[in-house]
Amino acid sequence: MFNIGDLFQWERFITPSIIKIFYWLAVIMAVLAGLQAVFGGLGMMFANPIAGIFAMIAGILVALIGVIFARIGAEFILIVFRINEHLGAIRSQGEQHQ
Which of 45, 40, 38 is nearest to 60 (CA)? Predict the structure, then answer.
């Protein structure tokens, strides 16, 4: 992953190493939010069955959409770092040919 010394030096980015942790935290939060809405819908079923069913469906959608957006956000951050790496490689190739 990364060494504690990497926190105090600027030669290496640590974000690509730890982005997976943040991705999994976002996935867990999205699933927990969806489960909370599903269980809230189950509790609502006693008072209003139609609203309870809609709340349960909304909870499932919240979980799915949350996981998808977490993945999109993580990939966007990784793409920015990958572009930086490729631009650095292109720059070093240009310096070698001169």
Answer: 38
What is the value of pTM for the model shown?
Answer: 0.75
What is the 3-state composition of the chain as percent helix, strand, coil, each rounded to the nearest 5?
Answer: 85, 0, 15
Q: How far apart are CA 30 and CA 74, in angstroms?
A: 14
Question: What is the amino acid identity at position 38?
Answer: V
Q: What is the SS3 assignment for 15?
A: helix
Give the DSSP letter string of 32-74: HHHHHHHHHHHHHTTT-HHHHHHHHHHHHHHHHHHHHHHHHHH
Interval 43-82: pLDDT, tens: 999 999 999 999 999 999 999 999 999 999 999 999 998 8
Q: Are 65 and 29 in contact (CB under 8 A)?
A: no
Q: What is d(CA 96, CA 64) in angstroms, rounded to the nearest whole number? A: 48
d(CA 24, CA 13): 20
